[in-house]
Predict the 3D structure of the following.
Amino acid sequence: MTYRMAKVIVDVPSRETDRPFDYLIPESMASWLEIGSRVAVPFGRRTIQGFVISLHEQPEMDAARMKPIQEMLDLLPPLPQDLVELASWMSRKYACSMIATLQAMIPTALKGKTERYISVADNDELPQDEEGMSVLPILTDEEKQIVAYVRASGHVLMDHLSARFPAYPGILKGLLRRGTLTESQVIKDKVRKKTIKSVSVAVQGDEAEAALSSFTAQAKRQKEVLEFLLEVGIPISLQEVLSTLGVTAGTVKKLAEKGFAVIEDVEVFRDPYQGRHFKGSTPLERTPEQENVYRRLIAALDAHRHEVFLLHGVTGSGKTEVYLQTIERCISLGRQAIVLVPEISLTPQMVERFKGRFGGKVAVMHSRLSTGERYDEWRKIREGRVEVAIGARSAVFAPFQNLGLIVMDEEHETSYKQEETPKYHARDVAVRRARQHGAAVILGSATPSLESYHAARSGGGDRHEEFAPVLLEMKQRPSGSQLPAVQIVDMREELKEGNRSMFSRALHQGIAARLERGEQTVLFLNRRGYSTFVMCRTCGYVAGCPECDISLTYHQKSNNLRCHYCGYAEPAPSVCPECGSEHIRYFGTGTQRVEGELAKLFPGIRVIRMDVDTTSEKGSHEKLLQAFRDKKGDVLLGTQMVAKGLDFPDVTLVGVIAADTALNFPDFRAAEKTFQLLTQVAGRAGRHQLPGEVFIQTYMPEHYSIVHASGHDYTSFVREELKHRRALYYPPYSRLILVTLSHEKLPLLLRMAENFAGDLRAKAQRLGWFGSLDRLTPSALDILGPVASPIPRIKNRYRFQCMVKYRGDLDAVSLVRETAATTLDQLKDGDFQISIDVDPQMLM
Ligand code: ADP
Ligand code: ZN
Ligand code: ZN
């Protein structure tokens, strides 16, 4: 006799448990359980959540030792089989645990938590009390009190019980250990499906007639309700019945008791966009450029062929229109589409365009939705009620069954890389997932990442794995409008001329002219250059976090200083704690300072400021943009947020306050990021009838990223940038793995970091991989470090890092992962951590 078994990945985040455990499948679940099912299983003394990753048969002998699955948590498995496969691929590629990748794929609402219930044990061997319940003979007064309370309540939540009897935790434990009380555990979802009470009529024809004539004069209201329900004919919400007829719930209930009507709970979807009207739109006639691109895209769709496209189109070239029409084709072929955008709360216009074209067929996965709303949007996808999902990077896991297309807009954006475990890049995951489905991928951008562009140009290039996209280009704007003229303003010259303001004379005049003509201005400030720190003008003291090597950030609202890494906070000082000087200043955010200066220079100017401070509330971002669109502001001032996807007809001037603030960062992508930002910002001006003007203020006017951005010249920028990358063997001419080791004790950490690097070197040498990348071998691996991390201490933990740089067909990830595991084993110390970041985007 054989038994049905399931391999389950359990929700215990530890290295030792990153493998499946075997469980018996009870008869009752046999026909329901699938790969991807979420289950509650016994694990040690606890009940925890897990995911079924495979099913198999097992001989009776082995099965005898196994525990059965306790409960199946959903009828429809939250993860279709293809996502379970994808999770296992991700765990290999990004060197992370399987449970971490599985958890990343389901909505927060389903990350069930264990609830512990306490009840009184029914034990036959113990003496019984007058109610026939067993009791232990000797109970103290306190014990009796607890047992009596639990008995009276039936079963009690553990948390509730310890809150009710806070002084007795030891006693409670003793009762559990002696078996007077027992504990049971269940997995509870964080959010439930939402239901409403609905009423429908339960009698028809003659029956209904008879019912109507049966009411006494006192039951006049009940009769009215029945008449109303007969007239409506379909189930209707109880609330609506009550408000329409002005009756009480009791009246409807009596009707139901007589069997004339039925009241039941009906599941409804929370709709975050309820009541919002989206202006409908129809496909535009394609321009010749769009036509070429479109034909090529739908050829892949029609042939059900997996193909990756890199759509390089200047800002305003009509990429979004191409996405919309390609998706329409995809839907007409009976398949579904995913649209990925960098940060959806920053792109309300994108959502509007998709809702406007596809209406109720679109689910929106929005980071600012409530957990319940997100869960409902997700369920619409899982249950096949929608055909398009739009969202930020995690929407790549939208559980569609028959995926035809994945669109990734602004594919160069760093937010596609998740910085927490699992540290995946949505681009690579999208390509992999599309391959499973035989689906097409469109990577769209005006400034493609060098990795994607290089891969397209070199047929896969050094990114041996994943993909070699087909390059498609769009160089013109359908509107016929020209890309705006861009002027570089040398701020060193301004200084020489005695202008100490943050506005050059040219930008100052530009703003003044816009104010006069009633046109609008967008001012952009690179966030990374400025922060709100506190500095003493007398001695140079800067307030820093005592636990992390980083300066504290000033928060105006609460008038305190906070650490953005660990949350440490202290009141803002009024005198310098070092020297007692009163000349201690709060340097406001860059945007606050610019706002102040604008008010000084242009009295009465209406500035809409958009930064982390003004957009922390839900919906505030949309509100600010709408206000600007309604021309309630002359200037839209902001950080990265204003650079993305905005499209305002009356914006004719764009100013970049300081273009080079990020150029000196120790990050090999600094030039690329600067170029991308400047190109994007410049694209905001003159998108409609009015011609646009752009001023880029900089102290490095001859830097190639600034020069080429001002000329809208992506190709020249790439040529130059690739030269630099090749000279130093940076991606795309190599791949990187960043390994960060951390511990509270510095000397110990240093030793472990050196052990790790030495061990890794030795292993690579044995495999014949180790060697400098500048030799002309097709594959090589180099290890840089260990060195102190750019932020050398966070939350009192010191940090060291090693950078692994390699090229060619080597499984460097596995090697690093194994070596990390051995290093961790050398120090049996829960405090020691090693984190692995494959293809890192943030190098500081
Ligand atoms: P992108 O996504 O490349 O920035 P969009 O799709 O937003 O470009 O298009 C820019 C503008 O051009 C939008 O206002 C859009 O409505 C318009 N547009 C796009 N395609 C066409 C077309 N074929 N005919 C006319 N207008 C178009
Ligand atoms: Zn001082
Ligand atoms: Zn800190």
